[in-house]
Design goal:
By secondary structure, this protein is of the alpha+beta class. The protein has nine helices and 13 strands. It has a domain of 108 residues. It starts with a strand and ends in a 35-residue tail after the last helix.
């Protein structure tokens, strides 16, 4: 178990309760009595998959779920031993046999040189199972979830329930996280010739590049065009990202044609969303994406950083690690508190907001642990002495979110997340 030595403003089943200066009234929940809290998220905030697997294939059904478990105390601990962490996709027990997704399993050998059983992904994980401890977190990677539940309803925002138990089988903590996936790749917007858009793509590729892909179906694009998204980093041709963005930059294509659709809309964090999801604001237009790869950028490995926009805030500059791979206060992942990439709190999708709503018992959705639930200035109001009087100690006047992990609340603001330099927008 790893000790969290810095004060962690993080919320669990206790609510943020307002002082007299609150802009919204919370619910004064009793103090937490459980010993553990669990926080879970998706590594990308949106995964895509092919609608069919018999012609052109870009991505398999493959979703990653991560979680961290904290044992509460005056010095909380991140726990990875002496417990089990399981997951299950709610109301979604199979993928094979729904629409045309079964083609992934039927063609897995030709596409991925693998032969997983039906409803099992490329890593051996299914739609329910055990999460694996790795460093100071748990992960279930390669979950083969599809955007159709057992009732036949299309929903790109599938939900996983995560359960933490001790070695005797007693439940210690539970939570839920969105496991998103969409099949809205819309090649039909432009590829209208032939029997299907994917057939048209192969035909045009053959005509322009002298290949014979139309007679070699199914084709995994990454076999020639490396895709770090699939762990394929070398190949005979340019990166797939460069080929796709470069070739479509002047063809009236939009980000949401592929990432991943007009309905789903990849980016759904309200603070980061414009008409195009702020794709261009962060990543540049299609020509920029392609040109940056020409100039040495590795797609999926080198991406925009939070510090580009969030300047002057301690702890936001993560250096070379991406947001999805970065840890901050107390060695917790940034996503544990702020939400999944492309779905940072608050999200326009209710399922994304499950944890801040549950853990902070408020209709107002903000970063977990933000003082802005109650205070117009998200750093709170008044001096640390006032904070200690109202929120500090072991039996506070008003309970706050940090008690998800801390049984005693420090008033040393320099040890708080981002060193007490939060902005009103957080």
């Amino acid at each position: 178990m790893k000790s969290i030595n810095r004060f962690y403003v993080f919320a669990a089943v206790v609510s943020v309760v307002c002082m007299s200066s609150c802009s919204e009234t919370g619910t004064n929940n009793p103090a937490i009595t459980g010993e553990y809290s669990v926080f879970a998220w998706n590594d990308l905030g949106m995964h895509c998959l092919n609608p069919t697997y018999d012609k052109v294939v870009i991505l398999p059904p493959y979703n990653n779920l991560m979680a961290q478990v904290v044992k509460r105390g005056s010095s909380p601990e991140i726990v990875t031993t002496g417990i089990t962490v399981t997951y299950k996709i709610l109301d979604n027990t199979s993928s094979y046999g729904k629409r045309s997704y079964g083609g992934f399993w039927d063609n897995a050998t030709a596409l991925f040189n693998a032969s997983p059983a039906h409803n099992v992904g490329l890593t051996g994980n299914g739609l329910t199972g055990m999460m694996t401890a790795s460093d100071n977190y748990f992960i279930a990677d390669g979950i083969p979830v599809v955007p159709v539940n057992d009732a036949g309803t299309w929903n790109p925002y599938q939900v996983a329930e995560i359960t933490v138990k001790d070695n005797s089988g007693n439940t210690l903590a539970t939570t839920r996280a969105t496991v998103p996936t969409s099949d809205e790749i819309n090649c039909a917007k432009c590829h209208t010739s032939g029997s299907s858009p994917f057939d048209d793509i192969l035909s045009k590729h053959d005509s322009k590049h002298g290949t014979s892909l139309s007679s070699s179906k199914p084709i995994l694009c990454a076999k020639c065009h490396p895709s770090p998204a699939l762990g394929i980093n070398t190949g005979p041709q340019m990166y797939l990202s460069k080929a796709l963005h470069g070739s479509h930059a002047s063809r009236n294509a939009s980000c949401y044609d592929c990432h991943p659709g007009a309905t789903t809309k990849c980016s759904r964090s309200l603070a980061h969303t414009a008409a195009d999801g702020n794709c261009i604001t962060c990543h540049g237009d299609m020509a920029n994406v392609a040109n940056s790869i020409t100039n040495g950028r590795v797609p999926w490995v080198s991406e925009p950083a939070c510090a580009t926009c969030h300047t002057g805030v301690t702890g936001v500059n993560t250096g070379s690690p991406l947001y999805r791979n970065s840890k901050g206060h107390g060695d917790m992942y940034c996503s544990a508190c702020h939400g999944s990439p492309h779905a940072m709190y608050p999200s326009r999708e209710d399922s994304d907001n499950y944890q801040p709503k549950k853990y902070q018992s408020s209709s107002k959705i903000k970063t977990i642990g933000s003082c802005g639930y109650c205070h117009d200035n998200s750093r709170g109001e008044g001096a640390s002495g006032e904070f200690a009087e109202v929120h500090g100690g072991t039996n506070p006047e008003k309970s706050i979110g940090c008690r998800a992990c801390h049984t005693t609340i420090s008033t040393n603001s320099s040890s708080w997340p981002h060193a007490y330099t939060w902005k009103n927008s957080n």
